[in-house]
From TrEMBL:
Enzyme Commission no: 1.14.13.225, 1.6.3.1
GO cellular component: endosome membrane; midbody
A Pfam family of this chain: Rossman_Mical
Protein's name according to its UniProt entry: Molecule interacting with CasL protein 1
Domain LIM zinc-binding positions: 643-705
Underlying gene: MICAL1
Amino acid sequence: MVNQDPTNPSHALFDQFVQTQTCKEVQRTFSELCHHLELDPRDYQSFYTKLKERLNYWKAKALWIKLDKRAQHQDYQQGKVCAKTKCLVLGAGPCGLRTAIELALLGAQVVVLEKRDSFSRNNVLHLWPYTICDLRGLAAKKFYGKFCTGALDHISIRQLQLILLKVSLLLGVEVNTGVEFKGWMAKLFPDDHPAGKFQFDVFISAGGGRFVPDGFRWKELRGKLAIGITCNFINHHSAAEAQVAEISGVARIYNQKFFQDLLTEEGIDLENIVYYKDATHYFVMTAKKKSLLKMGVIKQDFSDANQLLGQANVDQDALLRYAHGAAHFSTDHRLPNMQFALNHAGQPDVAMFDFTCMHRAENASLVRERKGKKLLIGLVGDCLVEPFWPLGTGIARGFLAAFDTAWMVRSWGKGKPHLEVVAERESIYQLLSQTTPENISKNYSAFSIDPATRYQHVNLNSIKANQVRNTQILLSITLYVPMCVHGPDSVGAFEELLKWCQQHTAGYDRVKVKDLTQSWRSGLALCALINTFRPHLIDMSSLKESDSVHNNQLAFSLLEEELGIPPIISASDMATKEQIDKLSMVLYLTQIHDAFNERTPTRVIEVLFKYDCWSQFLCSQPVAPLSAPEVTPELSPTSMNNEECYFCGQRVYVLERISTEGKFFHRSCFTCQQCGTTLRLGRYTFNQHTGKFYCELHSEQLENREQSPSVKVGLSVLSLSRWEIKPFCCIPCCQLVAQLFCTEQLRTASG
C-alpha cells in the first residue's frame, strides 16, 4: 500500500489531476499518475480496482465512495454484463463522455475519439434537477467546487466536459483527442494512430448534428424565423462582478417595459434574453430581424435563412456592438470592463444562428451486418435530437438518451436478438422529445439506465421486432449493392465503381470525379457520363457549372426517359444538400453502370422496389442479411416511378418515400390532421371515410365524439403494423388488404 505521506508524489499528482482545468493537462497528469502507480489504463477490466488499491489517499477515497455507489447498482451486474463488448464512441462532448461512463460501468471496453485537442466551448448549459443530482452522484463537486452551489442550475460546456473526462479516465475509458474519424472502415487521421486498430461491435455517434452515420434519416422541424445570438465576456471574478444578478430568462411578454427601454436607448429589439455567470459572463438572446437590419448587423434582407445569416451578409463589428449593447443594458450597466472572451479560433466569442430549423433523427439505432458479423449503431446528443435552447433541453435530453443507449448496449451484451434490441430502443426513443422536468419521475436518486426508473409511463414493447425489420431490410439492401456488383469486398466495389466513373468522364472540361458524393453535386459529371454513351442527348458546351439545379434536372430527366432509372432525390436537393448520401449515390450510379454496359440490372435494385411496395406490411418471415429475395414479375423499377405524395401532391422520390394504407407520401408530410405532429408507422389512426390520418391522442378524441358504428369501424382500421395478423408474402397485396380488413371488421363486430 502507498503510505499517506502528504509529500507522496502520487498524492500530489492526484491533486493536480483533480484540479487541472484544460483537456491536455488532464490527460498529462493522468498519464503521469498511472506511470507512477505502475498501472496500465488499457487494462480496462481491472484498472479502476487496481487504482483504488494503490492510491490509498483520503481525498481519493471520498471520490471512490461516490463512484462505487454508482458502480454497485444492479443494472451493471458488477461490470460483467458487457465484459465482451467493445464500444467506439465518436465525440467527447458531454453526451459522448456521459455515454462512455455508463458503458464502462457495464464492463465494456470503451474507446472515445475526439477531433479537437482542447475543450474550448464557453457557452453555459441549463441543468434540469435530475442532471444536477446525476452529476453530484459522479462526484462533480469533487472536481469543480462551485458546481451548482446554492440556487445555481447551470454549468459551462467546457467545465462539464472536464468533469466527465476525469470520471471517464478513472473508470478505464480510453479517450483520444486530436483524432478524426474518417469513415466506416474506421480510418483515422493521423493514419498511424493506435486507435485505428481497435475492433468494435458497438458504435455510438455523439459527434454533433453534422455527423449522422449512413442509414439514419433526419426529419426537419421548421418554424417562424428566429435568430439567436450568444456571447461570452471574460469573468475577472471581481467583487463588482459578483454583485451583478443573473437573468434566468426574461421574455418580452412578461416585461414589455424592459424591452421597450432597450429599444429606445440602444436601438436593440429582442424577444428574450438570458444571462448566466460561470467561467465567463454568458448571454443568449433572440433578436428581431428588423432590428439587426437597422443596426447594420445584417447587410441585406433575404428570405433564405442561410443567405440571410451567411458570413458574407453579416457585419462582424456591428454584431459585436449589438451583443455588447444588449449585455451591458440588461445588467443595468453594472458589469465593469466588459471584454469579449475568445473562442477556439482566437476570435471574440460571439455567434449568431438560426434556430428556425431543427432536426431530429427518425430512428435512434440500427444494426449493420457484414460477413456474418453485426455492428450495433446508436445516436446520442445533437445528432439524435437538436436542442431547443430557450427550453434548456439539450443536456437533459442528451443525458436521458445516453442512459437509454447504455440500456440498449446492455441488452446487446446479454445476447438479446438484435431486432428486439432495436425495437426496444425505438420504443423508448418515442418518449424523448416529450420529456420535461415536470413529466419525468421525481425520484432522482433512483435514476439508472433502466428506462422505468426515469420515465413515468414507458412501454418497452410499443414497437415490435417485426416493425423494425423493415429498417433492417433496407439497410441490408443498401449494403448489398457493392457486394453484388463486384463480389465480397465492398471497399473494392466502391473503388471499381469510382474508377469506372472516372474513366468515362475523363477529358471533360470542369469535370473531375474524385469521389462518389461531392463530385456529382454540380450535375456536370452526370451529364458527362450520359454524353460519353449517348453524345446526341446533351450539348456539354451549353451547360454552366453554376447552374447545378438545371444540370442535375437535365441528367435526371434523360436517365429516367432513356434508361428508366428514376432519380433518388430532387435536383435542388442534389445541388444544395450539405451531405449527399454515399450509399444512395452508389445505388444510382450502379444502375447507370449496368444500363450503359447493357448488363442485367443488379437484382438489388429490384429488391429495393419490392421492399418499397411491401413496406406497409409486416413480413413475418426472417430476412437473411445481404440476400436478394425473389421479385414478382409485375414489379419493376419503372413501374413505381411516378407516385405523387398523398398529402402535398408533389413527386415522391424512392429513397424519401414511405407508404401505408395503400398511399405513398414524403416522410415529412406524414402528420396528424389535427395537431400536425409527425406520425410514425404503427402509431397512427386512419379514417377511411375522410381519408385523414391522426395521432393516437386525437384519434381517441375523435372516436369519443363519433356515435355511428360505421364511423367507428373506419377509425378502428389502424396501421397494419399494429395488427397481430401475420401476412403471407406469396399472396397479392389486394388480397392481403381484403383479408386483414375483413378480419378487423369481424373483430370489431364481435368485440
